[in-house]
Structure formats: C-alpha cells, structure tokens
Amino acid sequence: MTTSDSKKAFGEGLWYHEKLDHGLYHSMENSKTHYEGTSKFQSISVFQSKAYGQCLMTDGLLQSTEVDEHVYHECLV
What CATH superfamily classification does 3-76 receive? Predict the structure, then answer.
C-alpha cells in the first residue's frame, strides 16, 4: 500500500480514509487537528477522532490511536 491509497482529511467533521486491501477501507471522522507538520524524515499529523481519541499518523498512514495504544505498548513489553 502507498500513501496515495490513503486520503488525509483535516478539519472538524472531515473524514480520514485508509485503504487496507482491495475494497476494504478504514475511515474515521476528525473532530480536531492538534498538529500537522513535516520533519526531516516524514510528515506527521496528530488529530482527534470521535471514536478513537488522539491519533498519530505518519506519511499519511495511521500509526497509533489513544484507544488501542495499550496493544502497541503491550507488544513492546
């Protein structure tokens, strides 16, 4: 999957769509953008989702959300 398969949506009430597979997308509504910028290595976005809480996205792909962060940290431990 490439970044072009995903669509960023920033601004209250807009939707973020990420293609997971052929005909399968994951979508979430953005209620507030906390940060959007570009580092030396990647684009970074932090936004608030009504269903998932705070979300981290790099290079247009969802990395982690507040609701599922325990899964991410459990794997690290």
Answer: Spermidine synthase, tetramerisation domain (2.30.140.10)
